[in-house]
Amino acid sequence: MPVRGSAKAVGAIAILDFANYAVDTYMTLSTFWDSNAFDDQMTSFRKAIRAVNSQMNSIPDNYRKDTNKMGAILNYVFQGENTTKDKNIDKIGQNILSKSGRYDRTNKTYKPFIKR
């Protein structure tokens, strides 16, 4: 049951976090009349949400219960950025990316879901 509630929390956090991202991206892309790029980013964002939800059991309880930390984990998985000073968010995000097949062994880097 806690996992299910946490998964819903991730979805809610993701929607709030994405609202800010969506407005900025939409304004940028609409300037260039490029709705396809926006659709691609939405698809990537949904994949990031699914990746976080699928690895919920690997996220410590104290992180699952904290909406700010869950938002930071999702941000790391989607954009590859951690704006907090919590190194555990990097580790959790890297674990999720690795299990999602998003580790580049050649360059030894994690590939977030966002399309650049």
Q: Tell me the helix content.
A: 55-70%
Number of domains: 1
Q: Beta-sheet strand percentage?
A: under 5%
What about the largest sheet? 2 strands, antiparallel
Structural class: mainly alpha
Distance between the termini: 36 Å
Helix/strand layout:
Blueprint lengths: L1 H30 L3 H20 L6 H4 L2 H13 L7 H13 L3 E2 L4 E2 L6
Helix pairs in contact: 1-2, 1-4, 2-4, 4-5
Q: How would you portray this structure in words?
A:
- This protein has 116 residues and is mainly alpha-helical.
- The protein has one domain (2-110).
- It contains five helices and two strands, in the order αααααββ.
- The chain has helices at residues 2-31, 35-54, 61-64, 67-79, 87-99; strands at 103-104, 109-110.
- The chain has a two-stranded antiparallel sheet.
- A hairpin with a 4-residue loop joins strand 1 (103-104) and strand 2 (109-110).
- The longest helix is centred in the N-terminal third of the chain and has 30 residues, at 2-31.
How would you summarize what this structure contains?
By secondary structure, the protein is mainly α. 69% of the residues lie in helices and 3% in strands.
Labels describing this entry:
5 helices; 116 residues; 2 strands; 69% helix; mainly alpha
